[in-house]
Structure formats: structure tokens, C-alpha cells
Amino acid sequence: MPRSTLTRDQIVRTAVDLLDDEGLDGLNMRALGRRLGVAPTAVYWHVKDKDALMLLAGDEVWDEIDLPDPDREGWRPAATRLATGLHAMCGRHPWLVQALGSYVLHGPRKARYDDRCLAVFEAAGFADDDADRAAAAVFTYVLGNAVGASATASLTRRLARGGADPRRALEDATAEAAAVARTFPRLRRRVDSPAAARYNAGPDQAFAYGLDALLDGIEAGLSGAPAAAS
């Protein structure tokens, strides 16, 4: 691809694809150039360095999240949709959670999402400071739930690069962790329980349960009533 026909949008979308496939460690200008069919130097005409590229790629994926209208849907359904949309997006791009701890990421797409989150909690009746706290609580909850998938994706790539069978290695590690857990009475009761099997088989249900509980607490704070038991 001639340098003159290469665009920043092409570079950013290809960077996102590369990050999805190879993770943070796999993103560099040489690998990106190979995917684009250009010399690495051609990329530098559009993006000055890897930090600038990460800034663009990290903002690009926020456009994938639908932004509901709280006035039309109600604040709680809108808050749920925003949180589940973010959770799904992080699942598609597990490198993003790691990047948030390694790079300074910002941009108009993320700002648009953040602004809509604040609009949702303002629609619920929160003043500015409380809307900030509510939005931050939900955001932190979602990212905390996304860490597991992000870590698993990173570990799987590292094991594969080292020549190991990632699935077998993870199964062995899980069995070892379960053996340690069985030496503690409360953990022992849970390791082989039907509830544990359901939790491991349905992480999205566990996410939805926790999100409902969190929104119950936020709603109770708005009304001044104690949170409903779930």
C-alpha cells in the first residue's frame, strides 16, 4: 500500500485487530506495517509513536457501545445497558483493561460514553457529585469483572508462545487451586458445590446479579431507603 493511500483510520482499525489477536505485547510498528502491507516508516507519517497509536486504538472501541436515552428508557434500564455494553466491549477487546493500567487513554468516544453515564444518573435525580460517584462505582464494577477475561487472554497467549498447551495448563492450575481451597472449610464447601459449577458455567449471570445488587444500592441511596435484599 503506497504511503499516500494509507489513512489514519486504516491504521487504527488494523491496530485494534492486531491487539485483539496478539495483545499489548504484540503491538509494534513492524507488526502493524506487515498487516497493512507497508514499511513501518509509513505508519510514522500518520502516528508518531506507539503511545499515540494506543491512544487512538483505545478510544476507537468505545464507539461499539450503544448509548441509551434515559429519558425514553428510564435511568435504571439505561444504566444497565451502558454497563452491559461496556462489559461486552471489554470481552471483545481484553487488552483494553490492561491498557488502562499502562497507558493514559482518553478521547472523544470515551468522553461521549462517560457523559452519557452522568446523564443517566442525573436523570435518576442525583446531583453532580453523587452522579459522579454512582457512575464511578458502576464503571469500577464492570472493569473488575472484565479483569478475569483479560488476564486469561494474556496468560493463554504467553503459554502458547512458550510452547505449552494453554487449555491443559489452565486446567492443571485450576485443579491445584481447588486442592488448596479444600484445606479451608468454607472454601471446601463451595469448590465442588452445584452453585460453584453454575457460577463457572455462567459468568454473565454472575455479572448481572452483581450489577443488579449495585444498582439496588445506588437506588436506595437516592431514596434514602435501605437496599432491597436480592
Overall pLDDT score: 88
Percent helix, as a range, is over 70%
pLDDT < 50 runs, ≥5 residues: 225-230
Shape: flat
The chain-level structural class is mainly alpha
Strand/helix succession: HHHHHHHHHHHHH
Number of helices: 13
- Rg over CA atoms, rounded to whole Å, is 21 Å
Observed structural traits:
single chain; flat; 230 residues; mainly alpha; disordered C terminus
Structure description:
The protein has 13 helices and no strands. It has 230 residues and is an all-alpha fold. Helix 1 crosses helix 2 (29-36) and helix 6 (75-92) packs antiparallel against helix 8.
Helices and strands in order:
Elements: H1 8-22, H2 29-36, H3 40-44, H4 50-60, H5 70-73, H6 75-92, H7 95-100, H8 108-124, H9 128-161, H10 166-181, H11 185-191, H12 194-201, H13 203-223
At a glance:
Helices cover 74% and strands 0% of the residues.
